[in-house]
Specification:
The complex is a heterodimer of chains A (about 350) and B (about 130).
Chain A (H helix, E strand, L loop, with lengths): L3 E2 L10 E5 L2 E6 L3 H10 L2 E4 L6 E4 L3 H8 L12 E7 L5 E9 L8 E4 L5 H15 L4 E4 L4 E7 L3 H6 L14 E6 L2 E6 L8 E7 L3 H7 L3 E3 L1 H11 L35 H10 L3 E8 L10 E3 L5 E11 L4 E9 L8 E6 L2 E8 L7
Parallel strand pairs in A: 1-3, 4-14
Antiparallel strand pairs in A: 2-3, 4-10, 5-8, 5-9, 6-7, 7-8, 10-13, 11-12, 12-13, 15-18, 15-20, 16-17, 16-19, 17-18, 19-20
Chain B lengths: L9 E2 L4 E6 L2 E6 L1 H7 L2 E5 L6 E2 L4 E7 L3 E5 L4 E6 L2 H4 L3 H4 L8 E5 L11 H8 L1
Antiparallel strand pairs in B: 1-2, 2-3, 3-9, 4-6, 5-8, 6-7, 8-9
The chains are: A alpha+beta (about 350), B alpha+beta (about 130).
Chain lengths: ~350, ~130
């Protein structure tokens, strides 16, 4: 299978590449630790062109997106964004996404960002439900047409201000504006996946190199993106949720706040029942007290060795210098500081539950 | 990118090196291996006095992104382990052929050394 290539593939100077959701993307440019630290302390830039971009326009664009995402799309003014889950009839997460209501002067009404490799499926989902429900909306998969970059870190506003005509102070968290960056017509959103101050920037693929080059800071790969998001306890599609390998509701995934039960959407009734009865398991942070690194799939047990669940993501936190993980555990075990064990190569290692984010942000 | 491959060492295809001195073999992983792994954050090693067998795994090196078994190039008794790696696993990245060494093994059979790669052959493999 041929991997999809970022419009920025040509600018990279010898990074390590990997297959991520069918895209060939950089894992690391220098070292994960160096890139991670740059984002926490200064600034880093990420090529996130592998994320899907799907636009929705027309009289029923809002109604269609409202009925396919868990959050309340009707609450968005022009230039607002919101995080949401996309669930099936059983309330199981198929994807998570940010829905942008595009600023005035933009051709399309809404843009949502599915995860890498999900763009085709989600475009189809929107189009087929539109037809089934007899709605009038144009759904367009723009993933190949748009490049997407993230600029994250305490110095991101200063760095971006030097390259844009936008007043960045006027863009609040989860807002998006249209302007130029390095002379390129772009959408600039104050969103991100690292916990730092920062922006996500969309522009036509043909202009991506110019914009990327103008943002002069540490290039970062998917490796640092993973350690940064894990320190924040943010979900990764395919790890913390997957329709068949890790079927989870938003309540289990600890993003119940994205579920607006007073709106009509696919999965609402199932989720209302979960909300009423309470989820039996919930995603929780773990910190390992013994030496070792918790990894995806490792078993979590109670102190007596009885199985409780498994690690969905884990790493050595570069910021804390400690091994951290996310795991689904029975809700009785999710109170912070509950002692558990993570089984690493057959050895039970001491761990305790932690509230996320792991770092103070 | 070219990696350091000292001429006086012997190598395994799985990227471990051996330096021999008077019946003892010092073992570590190569510059190429540490670069492939990235930031090393954890090293699991056997205890002094344990036996290792050529070709068998003797420990684990974990970087932020990956877990890798490490294999014994020779058979024998472990006479020393580099305990500095427990607190400073990054020594494997910084100085793989020096401060980042892993084990000293008292050789059970010196003829096993003949099965290992020379620097030239290992260099060819990693290029």
């Amino acid at each position: 299978m041929t991997l999809r290539e970022s419009p920025l593939a040509g600018v990279y100077d010898d990074p390590t590449l990997t297959d991520f959701g069918g895209w060939e993307m950089p894992v690391e440019f220098d070292s994960i630790r160096a890139e991670h630290t740059a984002v926490r302390e200064v600034c880093g830039k990420f090529d996130v062109s592998h994320m899907g971009q799907v636009t929705v326009s027309g009289p029923d664009a809002m109604a269609l997106t409202q009925r396919l995402t868990t959050n309340d799309v009707s609450s968005l003014d022009r230039g607002d964004a919101q995080y949401a889950a996309i669930t099936d009839d059983d309330g199981i997460m198929l994807d998570d996404t940010v829905v942008y209501r595009l600023p005035a002067g933009t051709d399309d009404d809404y843009l949502f960002v599915p995860n890498a490799g999900h763009d085709g499926e989600m475009t189809e989902r929107w189009a087929s439900h539109r037809d089934e429900w007899g709605l009038t909306a144009t759904v367009t998969n723009r993933t190949e047409a748009y490049a997407m970059m993230a600029l994250q870190g305490p110095d991101a506003p200063t760095l971006l201000a030097a390259e844009t005509d936008l007043a960045l102070d006027d863009i609040a968290r989860f807002e998006v504006a249209r302007g130029t960056v390095a002379g390129v017509d772009s959408l600039v959103a104050r969103t991100g996946y690292t916990g730092e101050v920062g922006f996500e920037i969309l522009c036509p693929s043909a202009d991506a190199e110019r914009l990327w080059t103008a943002l002069d800071c540490q290039p970062c790969g998917l490796g640092a993106r993973d350690t940064l998001r894990l320190e924040m306890g943010f979900l990764l599609s395919g790890q913390e949720f997957h329709p068949t390998d890790e079927p989870r509701t938003p309540y289990e995934a600890d993003i119940g706040w994205t579920v607006a039960l007073d709106t009509e959407f696919v999965g609402r009734d199932a989720l209302a029942a979960v909300q009423r009865e309470g989820a039996r398991e919930r995603l929780v942070g773990l910190e390992l007290l013994d030496r070792g690194v918790p990894r995806h799939g490792y078993e979590v047990t109670d102190e007596a060795g009885e199985p409780l669940g498994h690690v969905t993501s884990g790493t050595m936190s570069p910021t804390l210098g400690a091994p951290i993980a996310l795991a689904y555990l029975p809700t009785d075990y999710t109170e912070p500081d509950t002692p558990v064990r993570v089984v690493i190569r057959g050895e039970p290692k001491e761990a305790r539950t932690r509230a996320t984010p792991f770092i103070d942000r | 990118m070219s990696f350091d491959v000292p001429d006086d060492l012997r190598y395994l295809e799985s990227h471990e090196w051996v330096r021999t001195d008077d019946g003892t073999a010092r073992v570590g992983i190569t510059d190429f291996a540490q670069d492939e792994l990235g930031d090393v954050v954890f090293v699991e090693l056997p205890n002094e006095g344990d036996e290792v067998a050529a070709g068998d795994e003797f420990g684990v090196v974990e970087s932020i992104k990956a877990v890798s078994d490490v294999y014994a190039p020779v058979s024998g008794t472990v006479t020393a382990v580099n305990e500095a790696l427990f607190d400073q696993p990054e020594l494997v990245n910084e100085d793989p052929f020096g401060e980042g060494w892993m084990l000293d093994v008292e050789l059970a059979d010196e003829s096993e050394l003949d099965d290992l790669l020379g620097a030239e052959a290992y260099r060819d493999q990693t290029e």
